[in-house]
Amino acid sequence: MTSKKELQLAYILLVALLVVGIFSYAVPARSPDIPVRLSMKAANGNVLFDHKTHLDENGYGLSCVDCHHDMESDDPEDAVSCLECHEPKMDDEDMPNRKDAFHQQCANCHLDFGSGPLEKDCSGCHGK
To answer: In whole angstroms, what is the distance from residue 4 CA to residue 94 CA?
Structure first.
């Protein structure tokens, strides 16, 4: 049989864990200013984009304005989503649509870094 002190300790531990669980669930988690990863939906497979790899000095060491390039400001704090300017289907011939903008920006940059997708090899980026 268990002693009364052991039973009290078990109840105290149970209540403490319950309080911690409720507190952890009730307090909303703060989302990061820069999303860690983005999954961009595409017809031939989603593309997983990792901000950390692109921004980290051990990765490509880019700045926000290197990709969010056509902003009114060069301040990274003013970065906007690509979809602000590049809509999925656009009638404006001067502005590339989302698909073309991603292909131009991403593929050209990766080719410059020597880690680009092979020509006509869609699976290098899509379907991950």
So the answer is: 79
Superfamily grouping for domain 37-124: Cytochrome C3 (3.90.10.10)
> Hey, is 16 helix, strand or coil?
helix
How many residues does this entry show for the chain? 128
Q: What does the pLDDT look like over 38-73, one tens digit per residue?
A: 888 888 888 888 888 888 888 788 888 788 876 677
Q: What is the pTM of this model?
A: 0.57
Whether the Cβ atoms of residue 74 and residue 83 lie closer than 8 Å to each other = no
What are the residue ranges spanned by the domains of the chain?
A: 1-30, 37-124
d(CA 88, CA 15): 52
